[in-house]
Design brief:
Elements (H helix, E strand, L loop, with lengths): L9 E2 L6 E4 L2 E4 L2 E4 L15 E7 L4 E6 L5 E7 L2 E8 L10 E7 L4 E5 L3 E7 L5 E7 L15 E2 L12
Antiparallel strand pairs: 1-2, 2-10, 3-4, 5-12, 6-11, 6-13, 7-10, 7-12, 8-9, 8-11
């Protein structure tokens, strides 16, 4: 099943990567933001697990990529992040393309990262930042019995995937 791409979804220079603006709704009680809608994504991207991570200022997570997993990140604050993406898929029409985007408190976004797209993010703010991820694969498989679906690049000083 294919889902029609809503007109508010932004496409960058990398094929199949979606940037989805998050609308923060504020009232006298505080705020609310929808992170995921089942009607937005193709079922092959629907989450089977979710987690929240905290990243300290100046710290980078990644770069790494997945063979099968699609990540669905949400950056909404309280800090800002530089997100780095590289298309490492040899059969992609945008193979070799790179994108860097600032998101988070100043620009809340969800980000769909398909398998084979190398990704990293760095907290560029002055406070701890939270990132929500809803992946379409279980980390280390059912009951954590399988190899982790990651190709890590952060330890390779010769990797073409460098975070500035």
């Amino acid at each position: 099943m294919n889902v029609e791409v809503p007109n508010y979804v932004e496409r960058g220079p990398i094929h199949d990567v979606w940037w989805i603006p998050l609308k923060v709704r504020t009232d006298s009680r505080g705020w609310l933001v929808e992170l995921f809608r089942q009607d937005l994504l193709d079922p092959k991207h629907h989450p089977v697990m979710a987690y929240v991570s905290m990243t300290r200022p100046g710290v980078t997570r990644g770069p790494h990529e997945h063979r099968e997993q699609t990540d669905y990140f949400c950056f909404l604050g309280p800090s800002d992040f530089e997100v780095y993406l590289w298309d490492a898929r040899k059969t992609s029409p945008t193979h070799g393309a790179k994108e860097v985007r600032r998101v988070g408190a100043s620009a809340p976004y969800a980000l769909l990262v398909p398998p084979g797209v190398v990704h990293a993010y760095k907290n560029v703010g002055s406070v701890e930042g939270l990132v929500f991820n809803a992946a379409n694969r279980l980390y280390a498989g059912w009951l954590r019995q399988d190899p982790v679906d990651e190709i890590r690049h952060e330890q390779d000083p010769h990797s073409p995937y460098q975070v500035a």
